[in-house]
Amino acid sequence: MTTTAGRHAETDFRTRLQDWLPKIVLAPSVASVMIFVYGFILYTLYLSFTNSKMLPSYDWVGLENYIKLWNLPVWYTALANLAIFASLYIVICTVIGLLLAVFLDQKIRGEGLLRPIYLYPMALSFIVTGTAWKWFLDPGIGLEKTMRLWGWESFSFTWIKDNDMAIYTIVIAAVWQTSGFVMAMFLAGLRGIDNDILKAAQIDGASNWQLYRRIVIPLLRPAFLSAFVILSHLAIKSYDLVIALTGGGPGTSTQLPATFMYSYTFTRKSMGIGAASAVIMLMTIAAIMIPYLYAELKEKK
Amino acid sequence: MARALSPRRRLLTTIAAWFVALLIFFPVLWMLITSFKTEASAVASPPELFSADWTFENYTEVWARSDYPRFFWNSVVISIGSTLLGLAIAIPAAWSMAFVPTKRTKDLLMWMLSTKMMPAVAVMIPLYLVFQRVGLFDTKIGLVLALMLMNLPIIVWMLYTYFREIPGEILEAARMDGASLWNEIVYVLTPMAVPGIASTLLLNVILAWNEAFWTITLTTTKAAPLSAFIASFSAPQGLFYAKLSAASTMAIAPILILGWFSQKQLVRGLTFGAVK
Q: Which of A79, A196, B218, B259 makes an SS bond possible with A123, Cβ 3.0 to 4.6 Å?
């Protein structure tokens, strides 16, 4: 038996706990994001202004790392590669994804089986698919050899060994990996379109092409936007695929900013320059992401 | 927005769609087939689509290599460990956000989610340095922590969107009936949230299993999982083609199975809930 006062204190404690609990249980998640993302980003930012080499150092050197970075030819190669890779990757994935979605939307037989197959590559790790593509594109063992053995003697496909063409092999593998995923985004968008609008347009005599161009594609704007944002952040983050497929080579011809950062930090022991390149990548992504997330958030509110 | 097509057009579209499917699946299929061939028939000329003598030898031999099971085990521990740890932290947080929202909940969620978009390289050096300092470098616990931290925002976000689909009235009814908070979470919320939690778990196991950036950066040999192991393959030059295919197949086998069942979750997770 408890006294009235005791019971009172107990309920008081419990209500107070009820009030505080939601905040307490939120704390570990918020704190870890705060420390391990934002705290570490600040640390990286700080390191980019120091002359850290193999080990971190705390000698302030101002913008020296940034100046050095922008004087490195490899950094320009990495940026140029990113520009080629990202633009081709985004455009081709969007086009193929949209086409596949339109395909699947025709109520064709076996859709339930086709959709998972289209999406399969996305579930696999970039490392494994990159390795599989490396074998497939290797002139000595893959496609080229197979074609020659089948009697097409003059067949030649050596992009992966070619300084100028190797970056396109990365585009091929990346497009293969993500097109199905983009398709899923567009398919969801297509399924969300009101059939009545289309019927009305058809009754008005709109051709199929007009229907897609004038009505469907404009209505898919949100899907285009999310596809763009997701593909561009995947492109900038690309690392595994390059490592598995070309390792940044031949030479430095397929370096991307992420592989550049890794090799400058660990292989070449220039942590300061690596940190500076990470800061620039971060700022690029932020410039794309922040407006998008902001708009998305406003809409949902 | 499907519309009726003429039977002929429909047949053509179907054929084209299946052709694309074959194209997409071909590299994986080729790897699967090669893994069951003998080394000789894997490099036979002209190449054989199907070998006359099927064999499991590649698998047994790869497995018998002393280090392969270790990589495999590391992968299992790291992906499941980081997922369970992440869920343990994220379930209460998502519960709090979904059922006891405040004015700032949405901003907080967006803020957490935005970190998932950031390039991993931005936090790589500090994490590497801290791990070196405290002795977590090249340990399974270290990787469990690292992958948990990296995927936490997405776990919280996924759980939040699933929890939001649960009608809050049910929880209120339970509260009215005098259920304590603990009972409310354990007996009312959890059973209803099981599908959402399972989906999040599945997605996160796949993400963690496939993770390569962190596993390559934060391990050398001891705690390296399969993704790091495969990344170390050099071009096979035809010598161990079948065996490397078997090793790769084993590396992706769990994903080939899980991936089939979890495509919806994958799309939902990777689009940050934009596609349900």
A: B259
What does chain A come to in residues? Answer: 301
Partners of A50 in beta bridges: A60
Rounded Cα distance between B262 and A184, Å, is: 13
How high does pLDDT run on average in chain A?
84
Other CB atoms within a 10 A radius of the CB of residue B133 amount to 9
A60 φ/ψ angles, rounded to the nearest 5 degrees: -70, 125
Taken as a whole, chain B contains a residue count of: 276
Query: Which of A120, A188, A286 is opposite residue B25, by nearest beta carbon?
Result: A120
Count Cβ atoms below 10 Å from residue B180 Cβ, excluding itself. 13
Q: For residue A23, what are the domain limits?
A: 12-47
State whether A166 and A257 are in the same domain: yes
pLDDT digits (tens, 9 = 90+) for A27-61: 888 898 888 888 999 999 999 999 888 888 888 88
pLDDT at position B237, please?
47
Q: Number of C-alpha atoms within 13 angstroms, CB side, residue B76? A: 9
Number of domains making up chain A: 2
Q: Are residues A40 and A151 in the same domain?
A: no
Chain A residues with CB under 8 Å of B256 CB are: 120, 123-124
CATH architecture type of domain B70-268: Orthogonal Bundle (1.10)
For chain A, say whether B271 makes contact (Cβ under 8 Å): yes
Asked, for residue A1, whether it belongs to a domain, the answer is no
Judged by CB atoms closer than 8 Å, whether chains meet at A33 and B25 is answered as no
Contacts of A90 (CB under 8 A, 6+ apart): A228, A231, A232, A235
Residue A259, domain CATH:
1.10.3720.10
